[in-house]
UniProtKB/TrEMBL annotation:
Family classification: Belongs to the ABC transporter superfamily.
Protein name per the record: Dipeptide/oligopeptide/nickel ABC transporter ATP-binding protein
One Gene Ontology term from the biological process aspect of the record: peptide transport
Coiled coil: none
Transmembrane segments: none
SUPFAM superfamilies per UniProt: P-loop containing nucleoside triphosphate hydrolases
A GO molecular function held by the record: ATP binding
Compartments where located: Cell membrane
Length: 324
């Protein structure tokens, strides 16, 4: 299907000059209309940096040092998000692409009712909208994410973590964006709640037609809920494939490693601890394939030449093993 967001050769550094840490290296990734794209990888692999870079929300000292992020609006010509002025960016955020941050449920303002926080988003976006329409829209949104009308006037502390998370999802959807990015929205919630919220998001996507980039450690949730999965290592994408294909047979040794520590779909869940060694230090990245010091299959070219992400049928892989 058609692309809605195309990340092309994106590079992000933290800091400048000698101090620069290359957090995102030449990442290209396409989100298609209506799809749920899962993004997985160990802590520090660059998942959040990719999400923030794509939406121009990088905290300092983060800088985008190259690439393009082509957005395809519902109407009109595609444009590069990296070229938007601050003013254009304000219109773009929430209305075209919304992001639910890591730990977002704790970012609701404690002194305002949840209904007010939703109507504030509407007011900021369109000051001409009447108060009645704003309230009606907020009510409708909260209902959609399963918050009863009598909870509209609650303050954040009066809601459970799961409900606050749902309020955040409602807030992200209120301007009907085409793209919703969820950055580890679930780590703080219990497992049953995680599944409920994700299931609900997927259902809302079917009704409202947006696309999702979903970032998590929990590969079993990704396999269950996403169409495609991209796996990051050391700031690069090492494999990108349909969720079922990754689950069946991952081609990149790092993906297999993640899957090896992969909890059964219906068994008890575990942390991802399956790969010996630790994630690379961005300041002293290994030469060649950055996974080579940990890779059980490393061979001749691996320590000297960087494998490039290359298409293989319906997936892409960056590994010399797959090349040969
Ligand atoms: P997690 O799963 O823990 O959320 P992540 O995959 O989202 O990890 P990022 O937060 O994107 O990883 O971080 C990628 C790399 O960039 C890490 O090595 C991190 O140390 C580095 N980094 C992140 N933020 C900063 C910062 N403000 N200054 C310097 N380096 C940073
Ligand atoms: Fe392992 Fe070599 Fe493939 Fe890297 S390129 S994952 S070291 S086999
Ligand atoms: Mg993160």
């Amino acid at each position: 299907s058609e692309p809605v967001l195309e990340i092309r050769n994106l590079n992000v550094d933290y800091g400048l000059g000698d101090q620069a840490v290359h957090a995102i290296r030449d990442v290209s990734l396409t989100l298609h209309r209506g799809e749920v794209l899962g993004l997985a990888g160990e802590s520090g692999s660059g998942k959040s940096t990719l999400a923030y870079g794509t939406t121009r929300l990088l905290p300092p000292p983060g800088v985008i040092t190259g690439g393009e992020v082509i957005y395809h609006p519902e109407k009109g010509d595609p444009y590069d998000v990296l070229g938007l002025t601050d003013r254009q960016l304000q219109a773009f955020r929430w209305a075209e692409t919304a992001i639910v941050f890591q730990g977002a449920m704790n970012s609701l303002n404690p002194v305002h009712k949840i209904s007010t926080q939703l109507t504030d988003v509407l007011r900021a976006h369109d000051p001409r909208m009447s108060e009645n329409s704003r309230n009606a829209r907020a009510r409708e949104m909260l209902k959609l994410v399963g918050i009863a009308p009598d909870r509209m006037d609650a303050y954040p502390h009066q809601l459970s973590g799961g409900m606050r998370q749902r309020v955040m999802i409602g807030m992200a959807l209120i301007l009907q964006p085409q793209v919703v990015i969820m950055d580890e929205p679930t780590t703080a919630l219990d497992v049953v709640m995680q599944r409920q919220i994700l299931g609900q998001l997927v259902e809302l996507r079917e009704r409202l037609g947006f696309s999702v980039i979903f970032i998590t450690h929990d590969l079993s949730l990704l396999v269950e809920f996403s169409n495609r999965i991209a796996i990051m290592y050391g700031g690069r994408i090492v494999e990108e494939a349909p969720a079922a294909a990754i689950y069946r047979d991952a081609l990149h040794p790092y993906s297999s490693g993640l899957l090896g520590s992969f909890p059964a779909l219906r068994g008890p869940r575990r942390e991802l601890t399956g790969i010996p060694g630790s994630p690379p230090d961005l300041k002293g990245m290994p030469s060649g394939c950055s996974f080579h010091p940990r890779c059980p299959k490393a061979f001749e070219p691996c320590s000297s030449k960087i494998p490039v992400l290359t298409p293989h049928g319906d997936r892409s892989v960056a590994c010399w093993l797959v090349e040969s």
